[in-house]
Design brief:
98 residues, mainly alpha, 56% helix
Length: 98
């Protein structure tokens, strides 16, 4: 639905979902856990690159949930504001940010 009406707001793209699915959902013997810094880790170890990826993925999910929630409850003003934030992050014109 969002892809057909506002494709520029598709924060969770087919490529994003494919990467998520391949790396975390449908693992294979070739999957290397926590390979964010070029080295796979098993167990508790802090990796800055991994933490950044987690926050990026969480923001993708939360932005999409926010857009769906705004549409569902007809919060058009909040939808427009959130859409402007997404457009600004994507570097698009007319984001409404000053």
């Amino acid at each position: 639905m969002l892809e057909a009406k506002n494709p520029e707001l598709m924060y969770a793209t087919k490529q994003w979902y494919g990467d998520l699915s391949e790396s975390y959902i449908h693992v294979s013997p070739q999957t290397k856990p926590n390979e964010h810094s070029g080295r796979a880790w098993l167990g508790g170890a802090f990796q800055k690159d991994g933490a950044e990826k987690v926050f990026d993925e969480l923001s993708t999910i939360l932005y999409n949930m926010g857009l769906m929630t705004c549409r569902w409850f007809k919060f058009d003003d909040l939808f427009d504001e959130l859409a402007g934030e997404i457009r600004a992050m994507n570097g698009e014109e007319g984001s409404g940010r000053g």
